[in-house]
Amino acid sequence: MDGQTAGEDTQVTEDTWTVAGRTFRSRLIVGTGRYKDLEETGAAIEASGAEIVTVAVRRVNLSDPKAPMLQDYVDPKKYTYLPNTAGCFTAREAVRTLRLAREAGDWNLVKLEVLGPAPLLYPDMQGTFEAAAELIKDGFEVMVYCADDPLAAKRLEDMGCVAIMPLGAPIGSGLGLQNPAMLSMIKENITVPFLVDAGVGTASDAAIAMELGCDAVLLNSAIAHAKNPILMAKAMKHAVEAGRLAHLAGRMPRRMGADPSSPLSGLIR
Amino acid sequence: MPSTVTLTLNGESRAFHGPADGPLSVQGLLVQLELDTRKVAVERNEEIVPRSRYAETWLSSGDSLEIVHFIGGG
Questions:
Q1: Which residues of A are catalytic?
Q2: Domain residue limits at B35
Q3: Is the ipTM of this structure higher than 0.95?
Q4: Residues of A in Cβ contact (< 8 Å) with B67
């Protein structure tokens, strides 16, 4: 990035990222789950500035068909819905879920996650590969949640996944990025968008992910489970922007020892 | 005399009456359930029913249907 002549604002406005041919300004993708109610969901998402939101696919409550729906609070015309496969433990369940999602939403950009058992819900890579192959063959554009495994990540990219999204820590753990070095090394070998998905606990975690060079960050619980979700949504928005700017700016080298900021000459004696 | 079909709907067995003049379609079922067809997706016997074919997809007893929509999720 040059941009020496461009004003800072101009540079930020033009700093977009593109996944599967769709271009976005916000580098924060947020989940829509685990909020107190749909009103809070809508307000937090608005505050986060996100343009993409993840959504789950579930059975309609037939005993209350007129109950308010997510679409009434998070407008699919305003936000890009990214259907997920949360709760799917096999490739078959994940593929079936996303076929339904495509029919419900009429779009093919999806988030694939095939999970191992609780309490870790760690990505099941065998199931993930199987589901990714099936979905790509069926015309889906697959953003894939995966282990922080450089070989698996590369293989998923080679298969045709449109974004690689390793975890920073287990889903909903809020532990922050446990694997920054590995994430950076995976990122080096990936050319499609690279996101950290899961593990972010607070704003600084999101900033670290962006400083590492991630194209975007995906999170849910860090906002939904904050004491004040709307305030945390705003914090995440700023953290992602700050981390991105720091990445573009390029951090100073680390040195073992001091290097004074003030001149050592001209001191009074 | 309207026909009666017994369906497994979202995991539960339920009986529905078809219209007087013929069998029950997916469209007819969604109307009876008061669901907004633009906000749901339907799978019959593990096959997606495209929205464009709701009116011509006939249901028979023993069919298993899943009717889903988007909810909050991470």
A1: 111
A2: 4-69
A3: no
A4: 59-60, 62
